[in-house]
């Protein structure tokens, strides 16, 4: 694109506006051209204009959200070094609107267990959702049974005679979850990790808080890391 001397003498703010308008016109041409050699040429021109358009003047016209930068003519979200893949495993998804879930067939039993053991109803529902998708008859490959996926030894220790009975399963599962929450002084992610992987495995990490757990997430099974995140995501659906 050639610039005549008159344009070159224009104030920088006017040149910026002109450049933005030209880019908008170029976008329209690209969209109308479809594909082919002409399309390729215009696409390269647009990419170059995007690279050239990353000055502070453009930033005032197209303000960027915190952490967002332009790179190679494209818009990229730059993550801080601490926001690694492991940390994202236990962080609930907040990029999209959460679709709230309606009542379940076990709300009365969940409410009773919540009051009895002091565990948040939404958390109980999230664990059931993640463990069994509210199927009272499911059996895992490891032999865990029922809504809250109780292992035979755990169920027996909690006085469960029929793990497929929703009332017994929810009561025992919530009681076991409450044990873990109390053991870790209210650290929910620690409790969930213990619920999924077992308290002995968690004890070997030598951690006692959710923050410390994040630093050693790679020492837990991948299934457990995903489990914590899934429960956190599911919990959002059931919170009032």
UniProtKB/TrEMBL annotation:
<feature type="domain" description="Transglycosylase SLT">
    <location>
        <begin position="109"/>
        <end position="206"/>
    </location>
</feature>
<feature type="region of interest" description="Disordered">
    <location>
        <begin position="83"/>
        <end position="102"/>
    </location>
</feature>
<protein>
    <recommendedName>
        <fullName>Transglycosylase SLT domain-containing protein</fullName>
    </recommendedName>
</protein>
<dbReference type="InterPro" id="IPR000189">
    <property type="entry name" value="Transglyc_AS"/>
</dbReference>
<dbReference type="InterPro" id="IPR008258">
    <property type="entry name" value="Transglycosylase_SLT_dom_1"/>
</dbReference>
<dbReference type="Pfam" id="PF01464">
    <property type="entry name" value="SLT"/>
</dbReference>
<dbReference type="InterPro" id="IPR023346">
    <property type="entry name" value="Lysozyme-like_dom_sf"/>
</dbReference>
<comment type="similarity">
    <text>Belongs to the transglycosylase Slt family.</text>
</comment>
């Amino acid at each position: 694109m050639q610039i005549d001397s008159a344009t070159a003498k224009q104030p920088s703010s006017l040149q910026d506006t002109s450049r933005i308008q030209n880019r908008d016109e170029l976008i329209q041409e690209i969209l109308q051209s479809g594909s082919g050699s002409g399309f390729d040429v215009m696409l390269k021109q647009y990419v170059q204009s995007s690279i050239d358009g990353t000055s502070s003047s453009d930033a005032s016209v197209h303000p960027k959200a915190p952490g967002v930068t332009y790179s190679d003519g494209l818009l990229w979200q730059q993550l801080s070094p601490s926001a690694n893949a492991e940390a994202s495993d236990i962080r609930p998804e907040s990029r999209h609107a959460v679709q709230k879930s309606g009542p379940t067939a076990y709300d009365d039993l969940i409410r009773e267990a919540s009051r009895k053991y002091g565990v948040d109803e939404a958390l109980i529902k999230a664990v059931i959702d993640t463990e069994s998708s509210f199927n009272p008859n499911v059996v895992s490959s490891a032999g865990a049974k029922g809504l809250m996926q109780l292992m035979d030894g755990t169920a027996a220790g909690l006085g469960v005679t029929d793990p497929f009975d929703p009332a017994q399963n929810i009561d025992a599962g919530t009681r076991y979850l409450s044990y873990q929450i109390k053991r870790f002084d209210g650290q929910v992610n620690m409790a969930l990790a213990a619920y999924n992987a077992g308290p002995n495995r968690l004890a070997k990490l030598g951690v006692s808080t959710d923050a410390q757990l994040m630093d050693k997430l790679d020492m837990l099974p991948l299934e457990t890391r995903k489990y914590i995140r899934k429960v956190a995501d599911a919990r959002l659906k059931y919170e009032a």
